[in-house]
Amino acid sequence: MKKRLWLIFAVLSIFLLVACNSDSTDSDDSSTTNSAEQGESGTTETAASSTPIKVGVLASLTGALESYGKQTKNGFELGLEYATDGTMEVEGRKIEVVWEDTETKPEVAVQKATKLLEDDAVDFLVGSSSSGDTLAVLPLAEEYEKIMIVEPAVADSITGSEFNPYIFRTARNSSQDAYAAAAAIAGEGVKIATFAPDYSFGWDGVSAFKAAAEGLGAEIVLEEYADPAATDFTSNLQKIIDAKPDFLFVVWAGANSPWNQIADLKLQEKGIKISTGAPDIIALQFMEPLVGMEGFSVYHHTLPKNEVNDWLVEEHKARFNGEVPDLFTPGGFTAAVAIVEALKKSGGDADGNTLIPLLEGMSFETPKGTMTFREEDHQALQAMYAIRLEKVAEFDYPVPVLLRELLPEETEPPILN
Length: 417
Fold this sequence. Notes:
Radius of gyration: 30 Å
CATH superfamily of the largest domain: Response regulator
Distance between the termini: 93 Å
Oligomer: single chain
Shape: globular
């Protein structure tokens, strides 16, 4: 009996010993596995934080809108420096920028955007100088699920009928221009003719202005469109003279402006007052005949009064031989600030789907004051300026002098998407 009990005890002891050893081994294996997993996770995290954030910028760096593209480029580079305190990195990740020239051709814009997305593997798109180029590229942002900051293209359809959730626009749109312009000249019974280039920028600009002006009681008696590459506008302007409006509202962009021919044909002497948005400095130099005109401005370096604009003006002069920032320079600056601020919110995560809810409703400081991305259509609401063109001793060209800052809520455009 004692022998039998001893055997049972021995068997049980061996069994327990094996079980304990097995548990110990499993525990060691588990510990090793967890340690390995942590090591892999740590390596991945380190790799992610050391990977640069790449931004692909599309701009007209040659051709008719070359000056706009270069203004955007100067502004974007200064904006990155300002927003990162000179480090050119955010949340421990360096920012790299790849520039591509669209040549102001939509088919080229698509080719360059595809190259940026596939070959350069950019995290963001920015651009472009032309509404036509921009509209052609919008679907790619959605296809590749990358945030695209639209700057400086203004066509309403970008954040309207062609909107997709990856599009955020720091540029103002045509309706914002229109609300500012209409406030300057429209009223009950006022007759207005419009003149614009025959493409999306012009069509959207006139459409938005017409709605705003008619809402204030004005009558649009003629809509005249010209070839955007034309240099002779005589036939277009003669039609406007024949329509006998009280005002001619002009929507224009590019170096081939109609101002000299408007002066040659003496429209103002014929009783037709001219109104328009104050353009870039090159175009302002041809607007001597329009001194005294009241209209609106998107930006002139003398108009905003804030610390960000002061920094931009001072640094731009220092970097570019005393030149001041021009019409689209603050837009490039603002696009860069928006990207950096969004990445700060995401902890450096550049994933498009992660960034969308962070960008929606985001407010940030710019050379034009505080801007906010409207949640519904991702349009940046921003200040505009009611101005009068005047000769000022400091400048050798007519400059927009501030009559009143138009607050973002005053020029908030309709939601069109």
